[in-house]
């Protein structure tokens, strides 16, 4: 186990989430699955309690803690993409698997976890500063899924 690991709270489906992430993102995998050694407020002995997994190289633990705690936009994974094809693939996987679209490249998976699917061209434009950053930013503000060609056109002016 890594010294610092992100712990994500799920109701009862941490393993399903981990398997989805592992199937969707490169450098992702499901590790150990630990079952509860006894009954607990939100589950029974033998239920999946903790799932170790990696998402795009980031070590995580999924804890099946019950319905009391919900994910919020205060935490998100940001996935940098190379082009529109990769942007579409991740966006469509998340939204198409029971997730929902949001604004400016953000979406939520069906477990309520937020994702930023961010093409590198957008990050580069914003980092460049000046008028091209403003134009790219203004274009992004009108989008749900990021349109790489529209960001490139806005950057050029």
Descriptors:
3_dmu_93_MTrfase; 2,3-Dihydroxybiphenyl 1,2-Dioxygenase, domain 1; 8 strands; Glyas_Bleomycin-R_OHBP_Dase; 5 helices; 157 residues
Please tell me about this protein's structure.
The chain is α/β, with parallel strands linked by helices and 157 residues long. The longest helix is centred in the middle third of the chain and has 13 residues, at 84-96. Helix 4 (130-140) runs antiparallel to helix 5 (148-156). Helices cover 34% and strands 28% of the residues. It folds into two domains: 1-67, Roll (2,3-Dihydroxybiphenyl 1,2-Dioxygenase, domain 1), CATH 3.10.180.10; 71-157, 2,3-Dihydroxybiphenyl 1,2-Dioxygenase, domain 1 (Roll), CATH 3.10.180. The protein has helices spanning 14-24, 84-96, 120-128, 130-140, 148-156; strands at residues 6-10, 29-35, 48-55, 58-64, 76-81, 100-101, 106-108, 114-119. A hairpin with a 2-residue loop joins strand 3 (48-55) and strand 4. It contains five helices and eight strands, in the order βαββββαβββααα. The strands form two sheets. It has a four-stranded mixed beta sheet with strand order 1-4-3-2. A four-stranded mixed beta sheet has the order 5-8-7-6. The chain starts with 5 loop residues before the first strand and ends with a helix. The protein is elongated. Residues 3-118 form the PhnB-like domain. It comes from Rhizobium esperanzae. InterPro entries: 3_dmu_93_MTrfase, Glyas_Bleomycin-R_OHBP_Dase, PhnB-like.
């Amino acid at each position: 186990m890594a010294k610092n690991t992100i712990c994500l709270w799920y109701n009862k489906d941490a393993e399903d989430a981990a398997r989805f992430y592992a199937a969707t993102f490169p450098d992702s995998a499901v590790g150990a699955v630990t079952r509860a050694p006894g009954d607990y407020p939100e589950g029974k002995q033998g239920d999946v309690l903790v799932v170790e997994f990696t998402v795009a190289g980031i070590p995580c633990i999924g804890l099946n803690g019950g319905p009391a705690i919900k994910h919020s936009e205060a935490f998100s994974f940001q996935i940098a993409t190379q082009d529109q094809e990769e942007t579409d693939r991740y966006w469509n996987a998340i939204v198409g698997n029971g997730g929902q679209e949001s604004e400016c490249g953000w979406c939520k998976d069906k477990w309520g976890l937020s994702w930023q699917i961010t093409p590198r061209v957008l990050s580069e434009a914003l980092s460049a500063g000046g008028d091209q950053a403003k134009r790219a930013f203004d274009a992004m503000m009108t989008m749900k899924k990021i349109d790489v060609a529209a960001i490139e056109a806005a950057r050029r002016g």
